[in-house]
Write the structure tokens for this entry.
Amino acid sequence: MSELISKAELAEGIEKMNSFGTRITGSEGQLGFIKYLKDSIRDMGLEVYSDPFYFKKWEKKEASLKIFGYNGPEDIEISSVFPYSGETKESGITSELYYVEDKIRGYAGIKDKIAVIPVSELDGLPSELAFDKRSSYPSDVQLPVNYSGPVATTFVKFTYAKIAKLRGARAVIFVWKGLNDDLAKGQYLPFILEYQGIPAIWISETEGKKVKEAALEHRTATITLTADTKRHAYTETFYCMLKGESDKESVIINTHTDGTNCVEENGPIAMLQLIKSLKDKKLSRNHIFVFVTGHFRLPVFKDIAGGGVQATSKWLAMHPDLWDGKHGHLKAVAGVSVEHLGCMEWIDDNGEYKPTGEIQTELVYTGNNAMDDIFMEFARERENVKVMTLRGHNFLHFGEGQPLFNVGIPEIALVTAPDYLCVESENHQMDKFSIDLMYDQTETFEKVIAKIEETPTKEIGSCDDYSIVAGKSVSGRTDINVKSLGRKVMSVIKK
């Protein structure tokens, strides 16, 4: 048990975070959460440094869907809206429905209509295409044979709205296929795209059957999606530093402040505890705690000069003096990324979305074998643990640890990815969260950071490069090779 990590304070922090509601980039909820975090750090006697940003914000206000038939209008339940898609007037858009079955040739009659596009849950790509295993504990931990889930699906199949826009559609209704109706509710997806310029919503497979029938009968519908848009919305990244004796080296500990529920993103609450545990200790290296914004507005908050892809890249690009080791700058010898703590496992069991009683498999990227050894040393000490460590693979490395990896900082990055990760809900997904697990994970990070602090830079070593094509199996399958991967990718693209 850690003397400085408090489970009660973690629980209080989660409750406080939830009180701000959904914390999408630039929202009132995120700004309130940021103020709370900064005030908490200042209360510890530390200085906070801020990087303000202004960007064009899109935030949903109201959404509805009605289809019309012989018996009058019928309300269709919307599962969620497509972020930064587009908006209608309050009166909505009324037009004929058009069902797009064929994703290649099916857009021919879409002009001036409301497109109805089924989106099958991604289930055909081998997990080995996205992940390369380093180690696991227990040793029999495996990932599913195929890479799937709502996040993966929308990230792969993200072009449909733009195609519909280019072909003249007035709005889009996306219909989940193969995804549990309960799981479909509230999914804030996808969040990696530029503004699409066409209003779009998601509905469940059950509701989709009604809409498909209406579309095949050439019936009309009214879709309403109003949004609060602000051209110069404010948000900020901030950081604090625990000074070490060295004027040459640093360790970066990062997370993001925007999120959808109690696990996405609760990393800042854990980081407050880590700051508290370190602030009065004698440190050799400078420890920089970075709370970035923009994870849920990535097209705006990423910078190729800082490793690109994720929001931390913008902070890295703005502050090379704190990590790149050039021209007398500090050299970051290691990084630690803290995301998605306390996740419990829920699955679709014959149509019922329910808990298994197990923890969600913890996915942890480690930048090299030395960092892997450091993390696994302390992960194995925990009573409740189910973890797989990964190497960046095929230029994929999920989470805010990726920019650190991309600029060559060997990192340890927790990025557990349950299917409910991006769900907005009234209960903030607290029924899927374990404060005991979050405490154990935070304590592990405390030990990891202490171990890194006492490890000589030469022993930490340099960061690995991405592995390419087929890495070490994460699912136990043995039939992976270059040709079979190519066939799998092409079959999914055609589908």
In short: The chain has a mean pLDDT of 94.
